[in-house]
Write a structure and sequence with these properties.
With 176 residues, the chain is α+β, with helices and mostly antiparallel strands. It contains seven helices and six strands. The relative contact order is 0.13.
């Protein structure tokens, strides 16, 4: 199963006073993130606990220490959308990271549009792709053995696709 996105939110007043006070919050949409942060700040040993920082995170892609509520809510919404569409959350995070994009539900459709399939490596994917699409049918069968799949894989990766290695597989995505 996918790893749920989580953040460790720390109270900055406590942190500045040399006290570690914070809480792990799961961004799966099951709780109100703002309320969870307010509760953590209310439980702080520091009287002036008003600000927080994200001191750690898991399965959240690229996330600033000072991520605001909009960013955190976007991650929770994207996670719910990924779960609903049976998208591998960790692979989706790597996809967004590769493109330099923040995690948000709008990127789920981009992920789905770009995803071309998976295989053990790009050369194997290229063989399957060319066979499935019938692109080699114009080459006489006795000459198909001479087709250079490795060269084709190298060229298609330069021009048309990018790959992400995840869980022992190579996942292929079209450039859009």
């Amino acid at each position: 199963m996918n790893t749920e996105p989580r953040i460790y939110v720390a109270c900055l007043a406590s942190y500045n006073a040399g006290i570690l006070h914070g809480e792990w919050i799961t961004l799966d949409g099951s709780i109100d993130i703002g309320d969870a942060i307010k509760a953590m700040l209310a439980a702080s040993p520091s009287d002036d606990a008003e600000e927080y920082a994200v001191h750690d995170h898991e399965s959240c892609g690229q996330l600033s220490e000072y991520a605001g509520m909009d960013s955190l809510n976007n991650i929770a919404e994207a996670y719910r959308s990924a779960e609903a569409n049976t998208v591998d959350w960790e692979l989706f995070c790597e996809f967004c990271s590769h493109l330099g994009k923040d995690l948000c539900s709008e990127e789920i459709s981009s992920y789905e549009d770009c995803f071309a399939g998976s295989s053990t490596n790009l050369v194997s994917w290229c063989q399957e792709f060319l066979e499935e699409t019938g692109q080699l049918e114009s080459i006489p069968e006795n000459l198909r053995f001479y087709f250079d799949y490795e060269a084709y894989a190298r060229d298609i990766e330069i021009n048309d696709v990018f790959t992400i290695k995840h869980n022992g597989e190579t996942h292929v995505f079209w450039h859009r």
